[in-house]
UniProtKB/TrEMBL annotation:
Top-rank taxon, per record: Bacteria
Cell compartment(s), UniProt: Cell membrane
Entry keyword Transferase: no
Family designation: Belongs to the resistance-nodulation-cell division (RND) (TC 2.A.6) family. MmpL subfamily.
Native species: Jiangella ureilytica
Residue ranges constituting the Membrane transport protein MMPL domain according to the UniProt record: 52-381, 470-716
GO CC, one annotated term: plasma membrane
Stored Pfam families: MMPL
Transmembrane segments: 26-45, 186-205, 212-230, 236-255, 284-306, 312-336, 383-402, 538-556, 563-586, 606-627, 648-670, 676-699
Membrane topology field: Multi-pass membrane protein
The protein, known as: MMPL family transporter
Keywords annotated in UniProt: Cell membrane, Membrane, Transmembrane, Transmembrane helix
InterPro entries on file: MMPL_dom, Mycobact_MmpL
């Protein structure tokens, strides 16, 4: 490099320079984007309504017939369960009390129909002590029912209860109201602020990641409503996307703030340090964000609309974070970059605090002594570290081998919830299967005598092992569609119920083809079975596709076959270990009670799917951060051991702080009363903790020490054909030297 040569950063560096110079316009642009997004969401935003059925499945066909011909059955019901411990429910006094209760409920808002339990088939338990009456609501989804109106239903039931007469309400509408509102975003932000203050020691440096994350959250949250207007988006997806956006926004800017302070310590001006930061650490951020996007694309392989909606909402959050990192962050540095060390915490002395940066004569950051000691310990005990790390990961993953897939229901709710009490009362009075009846729906074609065909089907179903009862067929008003309600002997989460559904579909109902009826098995339980099986079928394609594409991205980024392979293996180990932690907690033992799960709970099939897509991308983030610094040192020194030590020591504090923030953000979901959100939060928090400690700080460096110079190997023919991305950037171009001038507006290289 000649003394008059000008530094030539890439597109990110040029964009950073422009954002730094025009910082006022950039801030105004982000404010305008937020206003436009909010306006569009208010005008065109949709509701979080979702169809959990599997496209083309037998249960979906049954649901379509129910919706068209039996709207009362297809809508949102509420079960009123009454248990009399002193006298039968047919007693005149009890009957009068039940009638008064039903009259009260009939008069409340959104109640359109109330069944008479004394005349409805199957509404009285065999022992005569329990009855169930169904309320019909005028809402299509539980979320559409105002919580205040649901609470009025609960108050009426509570008022009707007395010693000797227990009244409880069940159904998804009741569960939704009892779960209440939950938002963990603020908890995550507060925890992140504390960690950043401890990490950097100054208010300005800690405030930049928070500011970028909050701006990204504001924009992405408003855009979520627009996605919901055109796609199915489950109500838990925006919470997941918000927390992921917060975590990524803070982590990415944390990395760049650290690099900016290093460039400032090396002697660069605020504007030049901004350009250098985006042209080095910024590249790693873009690659890391791309891996998250690739992982989320994997959800499209499931073929389920609600998973695709989750993917799009999350990808929108990631895209907004990347845009904020590339434009808003440099603009904020234009305002606060020269004050990056201002407002230091009084307990941390300048130059001695955790955020202190020491630079060598060559302009490279001097790692802290603690991280250097740890790195050299791993180098000396590399084989032991690989064995211990791998053994620990496999031990954590072991509980996943016994995982039972299914959908948590009211039986897994807290014991003081009305929905749980109704669930238990139904199971005690009618049998476990009463909480998950199967709905058999069929059209009666012209020329078929339904009067003889339907009883034949009912008799065949009733004779099937695992069936407790079959209620008399019900015809729609036109008389051409019939509904049979089947009560299994086992509960909705029992494997025997799944076997019964398959037996009906594969053996019993096809055998009734002589009747001329095409019978579909539907209901919540059957739909859950179909979703779980669809997930299981699509999981290999999802995992294979995401892993292969991510490996190719790593190959292009780091030009090493070995790095590509080891990264994939390590990331898969992190995900499987997290699966094991979640499986252990869902067993409902001592681990489950720590987070509020006191009963054995099945794992929804989409939980490991969502966990994989999110966690594989996040694991790749830390891999990119770590390996990019190792490669930077390798290109400079061609010393494998030195590059591992430099990379580990140089990123140890950043990855530790980033992981701590991620863990606290996702752990904010654990107190949620929703088992799905609780499982997702716990699994992702555990995976990030495992990944940042056992994997990044132990397994990766130890394995790379064992492999030696082979870490950086790639066939020459492949190396010649791979594009040069410079993921680690070209830091040598920005290092101050005699006669070298830096520029924020150069020509692209």
């Amino acid at each position: 490099m000649t003394p008059t040569e000008t530094v030539r950063p890439g597109p990110l560096g040029r964009l950073a320079g422009a954002s730094f110079r025009h910082r006022g316009r950039v801030l105004a642009g982000w404010a305008a984007a937020l206003a436009v997004a909010a306006g569009l969401a208010a005008a065109f935003g949709g509701d979080y309504e979702v169809d959990y059925s599997t496209p083309g499945s037998d249960s979906q066909q049954a649901q379509q017939l129910l919706t068209e011909r039996f709207p009362a059955q297809a809508g949102e019901p509420v079960d009123v369960v009454v248990r009399s411990s002193d006298v039968p429910v047919t007693d005149a006094a009890v009957r009068a009390e039940v009638g008064a209760l039903l009259d009260t409920l009939r008069s409340l808002p959104h109640v359109t129909a109330v069944d008479d339990p004394y005349t409805a088939p199957g509404a009285l338990a065999p022992d005569g002590r329990t009855l169930v009456a169904r309320l019909g609501l005028d809402v299509d989804a539980p979320e559409d029912m105002p919580v205040a109106d649901t609470e009025r239903l609960l108050d009426a039931a509570s008022a009707a209860s007395r010693p000797g007469l227990d009244v409880a309400l069940g159904g998804d509408t009741i569960r939704t109201a009892e779960a209440g509102e939950f938002g963990g975003e603020m908890v995550g932000l507060v925890a992140a602020a504390v960690i950043l203050l401890v990490t950097f020691g100054t208010v300005v440096a800690a405030g930049l990641p928070i500011g970028v994350a909050v701006a990204g959250l504001a924009v992405s949250t408003t855009l979520t409503g627009l996605v919901a207007a055109v796609m199915d988006v489950p109500n838990w997806a925006p919470i997941l996307a918000s927390l992921l956006g917060i975590a990524l926004g803070i982590d990415y800017v944390l990395l760049m703030v650290t690099r900016f302070r290093e460039w400032r310590a090396a002697g660069l001006s605020p504007s030049d340090a901004t350009v250098a930061t985006l042209d080095t650490a910024g590249r790693a951020v873009m690659v890391a964000g791309s891996t998250v996007m690739i992982s989320m694309f994997g959800l499209f392989a499931t073929g389920l609309t609600f998973m695709q909606g989750t993917a799009v909402v999350t990808m929108v959050a990631v895209l907004v974070v990347l845009a904020a990192s590339a434009t808003l962050f440099p603009a904020l540095l234009g305002f606060f970059g020269h004050r990056i060390e201002r407002w230091r915490l009084p307990v941390l002395r300048r130059g001695r605090g955790p955020g202190a940066v020491t630079v060598t004569d060559g302009g490279h950051v001097e790692p802290s002594r603690a991280w250097l000691r740890w790195s050299r310990l791993i180098e000396r005990r590399r084989v032991v570290a690989v064995v211990l790390g791998t053994g620990l990961m496999l031990a954590l993953a072991a509980p996943f081998l016994g995982t039972r897939f299914g959908f948590p229901d009211a039986g897994n709710d807290p014991e003081d919830h009305s929905a749980r009490q109704a669930y238990d009362l139904l199971a005690d009075g009618f049998g476990a299967g009463a909480n998950g009846p199967l709905l058999l729906v069929t059209s009666v074609p012209p020329g078929v005598d339904g009067g003889s065909a339907l009883p034949a089907v009912a008799d065949a179903v009733a004779a099937t092992p695992g069936v407790a009862a079959v209620l008399p067929p019900v015809l729609d008003p036109s008389g051409d569609t019939a509904l049979l309600t089947v009560v299994p002997s086992a509960g909705p989460q029992d494997a025997a119920t799944e076997s019964l559904v398959h037996a009906l579909r594969d053996d019993v109902l096809p055998g009734a083809a002589g009747t001329g009826l095409d019978v579909h098995v539907g209901g919540v339980t059957a739909a859950a079975i179909d979703v779980n099986e669809t997930m299981a079928d699509g999981l290999p394609l999802l995992i294979g596709g995401v892993v292969v594409v991510s490996m190719l991205l790593l190959l292009v980024s780091f030009r090493s076959v070995v790095v590509m392979l080891t990264a994939a293996v390590m990331n898969l180990l992190s995900v499987v270990a997290a699966y094991g932690v979640v499986a252990l907690v869902l067993e409902g033992g001592w681990a489950g009670r720590l987070v509020g799960i006191d009963t054995e709970t099945p794992m929804p099939a989409y939980v490991p799917v969502v966990m994989f897509t999110v966690l594989f991308g996040l694991s790749m983030d830390y891999e990119v951060f770590l390996i990019s610094r190792m490669r930077e040192s390798w290109l400079r020194t061609r010393d494998n051991a030195r590059s591992i030590v430099d990379g580990l020591a140089g990123t140890g504090r950043v990855i530790t702080a980033a992981a701590a923030i991620m863990v606290t953000v996702f752990a904010a979901l654990v107190p949620s009363p929703d088992v799905v959100l609780k499982s997702l939060g716990l699994g992702m928090a555990a995976a990030i903790l495992i990944d940042a400690t056992v994997v990044r700080m132990l397994l990766v460096p130890a394995t790379m020490h064992v492999l030696g110079r082979a870490n950086w190997w790639a066939p020459r023919w492949l190396d010649r054909r791979l594009p040069q991305l410079y993921v680690e950037g070209r830091p040598d171009l920005f290092l101050p030297a005699p006669g070298l001038r830096t520029a924020a507006e150069p020509v692209a290289r």
